[in-house]
């Protein structure tokens, strides 16, 4: 369990929310869109630099950035993503940022994904081979239990990205419980706790925390415009809720 003296993370200034360099005690951000030109994330390396600098200032030591992969919108390949990583690694070295970066991907669970799964051509993260997956926004995926099972039989641990954001689960929390029972882990979006996606999503995010169903927190940052909203996370009441979770982020440091 990641715990740290709660008040030690805050500077006693006029602004009680001002985070110190120790604020992100989970150390590893494992969901973001920091490779320019590959999905709906950052537009260029200047935006990448702005985002990474801020994460480092908040205490993040490692970023695992996760471009979208989907057949209809972002048909990226493993090679595309690995190639994009090189430019950002050079950027980090050039500006001597105190963090490292690696890549994985955020996979939409479509037929494109299933073909990658069969070919074992997937970008996972961590020694346990976590795989970040998302489902469509329109309706609950009927084949989800089957796909999650197939992911696990191929030796991966599925991590469902931002379960709090799927509206079809807002009134069906039992469905989320069933997904967890399959062995799928949950990744909460940082900005879901900051009101960025509306009050219903924030309510669901707080429910997940109350259930202790949050395994990872991720920024899902797409651009520098996300940063002001992200700062809202550091409200003491919100940080206290997070501190009560058993987050796995820091296990990804090595
Ligand atoms: Fe994302």
From TrEMBL:
It catalyses: O-phospho-L-tyrosyl-[protein] + H2O = L-tyrosyl-[protein] + phosphate. Belongs to the metallo-dependent hydrolases superfamily. CpsB/CapC family. It is an enzyme of class 3 (hydrolase). This is protein-tyrosine-phosphatase. It comes from the Bacteria. Keywords: Hydrolase. Transmembrane segments: none annotated.
């Amino acid at each position: 369990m990641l715990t740290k003296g709660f008040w030690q993370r805050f500077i006693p200034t006029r602004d009680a929310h001002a985070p110190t360099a120790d604020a992100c005690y989970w150390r590893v951000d494992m969901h973001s869109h920091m490779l320019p030109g590959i999905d709906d994330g950052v537009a260029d390396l200047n935006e990448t630099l702005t985002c990474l600098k801020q994460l480092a200032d908040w205490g993040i030591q490692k970023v695992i950035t996760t471009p979208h992969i989907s057949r209809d919108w972002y048909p990226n390949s493993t090679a595309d993503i690995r190639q994009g990583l090189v430019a950002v690694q050079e950027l980090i070295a050039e500006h001597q940022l105190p963090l490292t970066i690696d890549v994985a991907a955020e996979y939409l669970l479509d037929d494109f994904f299933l073909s990658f799964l069969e070919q074992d051509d997937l970008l996972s993260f961590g020694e346990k081979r976590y795989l970040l997956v998302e489902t469509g926004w329109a309706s609950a995926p009927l084949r989800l239990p089957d796909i999650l099972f197939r992911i696990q039989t191929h030796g991966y641990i599925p991590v469902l990205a931002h379960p709090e954001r799927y509206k079809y689960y807002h009134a069906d929390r039992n469905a989320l419980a069933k997904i967890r029972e399959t062995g799928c882990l949950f990744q909460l979006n940082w900005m879901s706790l900051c009101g960025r996606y509306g009050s219903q999503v924030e309510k669901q995010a707080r429910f997940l925390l109350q259930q202790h169903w949050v395994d990872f927190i991720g920024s899902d940052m797409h651009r520098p415009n996300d940063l002001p909203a992200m700062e809202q996370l550091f409200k003491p009441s919100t940080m206290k809720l997070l501190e009560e979770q058993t987050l796995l982020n820091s296990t990804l440091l090595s």
